[in-house]
Amino acid sequence: MSDKPSYLGLLNAIAVNEARAHQYLQVWIDKTTDPDVKTVLRTVAWREGEHGMSFAKRVNELGYELRDRDDLNLADRLEVAGSDRSDLEKMEYFGQDRLDEVLGAFDTIFSDHTIDIQTGELLGRYVAEEFDTARLLRCCYEQLKARQGETSTPTSASSGAAAGSSSELASLNDKVDALCRAVEELRQIVCAQSMPTKAS
Ligand SMILES: [Fe+2]
């Protein structure tokens, strides 16, 4: 019988995802010219980087090695993070305006009653910090959205309505894409969480 922890896949998935988020956030920090956005992104980037290292360290402490993955489209994310898109568009691309909605997938983490104390402590802090990050990013997003509202000046009622509907459509598309990406990331984490349990 394998004594491999049932939650090893979960730890691995968090380590890899968080380390990659740290990478693309660094690129975005270097690119943005908005000091408020830079401040928020710095806080989030350090958290993500620390999560990546802490979970990789825990995997190692448990006697295993981190398994890298090549299915997370990091190149696309780095490209968008360093692009000329606005900060608001980037936040929508990365799904940062609605992180709290998808973080609900973490609600069942502790239904695995075999989690050891040290890993449980790490996971508890991680989840609480992710929700705090979601609140920080949501607040930043709403401020950018409000600023955008103040500066938009349509030239006439009809062209304003047309421009509004096409930008609303583009924004909706971005949101759907971002939601799909966030759901996919969480699906991978949840799968990673459940697969070893089935195998053991
Ligand atoms: Fe994260």
> In what range is the share of β-strand residues?
under 5%
Structural class, from secondary structure content? mainly alpha
The level-1 CATH class: Mainly Alpha
Small-molecule components bound: fe (ii) ion
Uncertain stretches: 196-200
The radius of gyration is 19 Å
Give a count of the beta strands, DSSP E runs of length 2 or more: 0
Instruction: Spell the H/E element sequence.
Output: HHHHHHH
CATH fold node name: Ferritin
Q: What is the CA–CA distance across the termini? A: 8 Å
Description:
The protein has 200 residues and is mainly alpha-helical. It has one domain (8-149, 158-199): Ferritin. It has helices spanning 8-31, 35-61, 74-81, 87-93, 99-102, 117-151, 157-199. Helix 1 runs antiparallel to helix 2 (35-61) and helix 1 packs antiparallel against helix 7. Fe (ii) ion (FE2) is lined by residues 18, 21, 48, 130.
